[in-house]
Structure formats: C-alpha cells, structure tokens
Amino acid sequence: MIAVISDIHGNLEALEAVLADVDRHSVERLYCLGDIVGYGPNPKECVDLVSSRCGLSVLGDFESMLWDGPSEGSSEEQRAAVEWTRRQLNNMPTPGTDSDSRWEFLWSLRRSFVEGSFLFAHGSPREPTFEYVFPEDQYNRRKMEALFNCFESYCIVGHTHLPGVFPSVEQFVRPEDCELEFKLKSTKALINVGSVGQPRDGDLRASYVLLDENRVVFRRVDYDIDTTIRKIRGMPKCSRRALALFGGI
Fold first, then answer.
1. What is the DSSP track for the chain?
2. Phi and psi of 2, rounded to 5°?
3. Residue 96 — pLDDT band, cuts 50, 70, 90?
4. 170 phi and psi, to 5 degrees?
5. Where are the domains of the chain?
6. Which residues contact 20 (CB under 8 A, 6 or more apart)?
7. Which residues, 6 or more positions from 53, have their beta carbon under 8 angstroms from its beta carbon?
8. Are 230 and 247 in contact, with CB atoms under 8 Å apart?
9. pLDDT per residue as tens digits for the range 53-82
10. pTM greater than 0.85 (yes/no)
C-alpha cells in the first residue's frame, strides 16, 4: 500500500498528525506531491520531515517559485510568502540539519514520476507543476480529454486542495460520494489527494490518500489547528487570506 500526501504548506501540526495516521496502516511507501512549504509557519521542519520520510517527492508550484521567483500574475500574499520562506530556509538550522541540505533536497525534486500503473504529479499530467484540474473541469470536455490522453491508467495529483476522483472526462466524484473509498477499475482515472495543510473543501481536517492497484482510500485527520493559527498570526506580513486558507477566520 502507498500513502500519498500533498500541499503541506508549512503546516507542521497537520503533517505530524498525518504521518502518525500513516504509521497506523500497513504502508510500504510514502510519496509527496509538492508544495511542502508556502504560507505556513514551519517550512524548515516540514522540509526535514518530508525529506526523511518520503521515498519520492515531486516539485510543487511553490517550490518552483522559490527558485524562479513568483510569476508575473502572483498575488501580493504569494510574493510575501515566497520571500519569507526563502529567509526561513536560509536561517539557522534545526538540530541535525543544515540549510544547504534542505536546498539540495528541494533542488532534487522531480516534476513527475511513474510507478506501475500510476503517474504522480503536483498539478496535472499535462503540466505537472502549475496546471490546475478543478472539479468543475468535468464540464470542460476538451480539457479533460487532453488531460486523459497524457497518462496510461491512473494519474495522482494535488494542487487544488480539493480531494476526489475523475473516473471519466465528464464526472468528478467527491470522497463523501463514494464513502471515502473509490474502487479502481480497468478504465482511466485522475485522482486528487487533497491537502495536508490547507484543505479547501469545507473540511478543515488534513487530507491524504492510501492507494493500491484496486482502490484509493481518502483519509481525514484532525490536528491542532489552533496552534497553527497562533503561529501564523505571529508571522510578519500575515494576511487575512493566509489565515482564511488555514481556517483561521
């Protein structure tokens, strides 16, 4: 069984709770689909945990912005978060680590990888780092057909922070619609694992999935969100948008 996490966004309390839940299952491998950092108060600690616990990780759009800078259309909050995160990663290390090793890990992140029947990416099978695939794209047949043509069997992504499954180009199944367990068939499917640190589907609990060749199981995990919110309020240039993303207001 594989556990897949994504979109941690520097939320250490959520990540630690998810890893504790992963340890309660017979998980052979743990993968991360990017956006380990960004907006949240503990980027260093989250990078250290992911680098030590995850067998493979992919590049998220936020990690890409750490290297290349925010895109021209980035919001003020995104630009401030990128600069703040860069400073944190360059500050004094936590015991047993150093800033160079963190940057080396982030530099090593691949854009996507294939294992067996599964393609893993942050955004989409067509543009692994930046392209969003939203639930409402089930009504955009041209886009979904193009995406489905980019993988052989199953594609596993994050990025939108909205968990669920596209079992076809014209359908999106939310976790609650399949009682948190979706049976994988011989036909293609595109699966979103949701977000560990910033769920945006109305459920503030951390989200991740357990995966094998036959099914995907959506997991929701409670964590100490009040501690995360207090940390965010203590960050410089803390925005209302950033707090809202973490359920703080």
1. -EEEE---TT-HHHHHHHHHHHTTS--SEEEE-S--SSSSS-HHHHHHHHHHH-SEEB--HHHHHHHH---TT--HHHHHHHHHHHHHHHSPPPTT--HHHHHHHHHH-BSEEEETTEEEESS-SSSTTT----GGGGG-HHHHHHHHTT-SSEEEE-SSS--EEEEETTEEE-GGGGTTEEE--SS-EEEE---SS---SS--SEEEEEE-SSEEEEEEE---HHHHHHHHHTSTT--HHHHHHTT--
2. -110, 140
3. low
4. -125, 25
5. 2-245
6. none
7. 19, 30
8. no
9. 999 999 999 999 998 887 777 777 788 888
10. yes
Write down the architecture of domain 2-245 according to CATH.
4-Layer Sandwich (3.60)
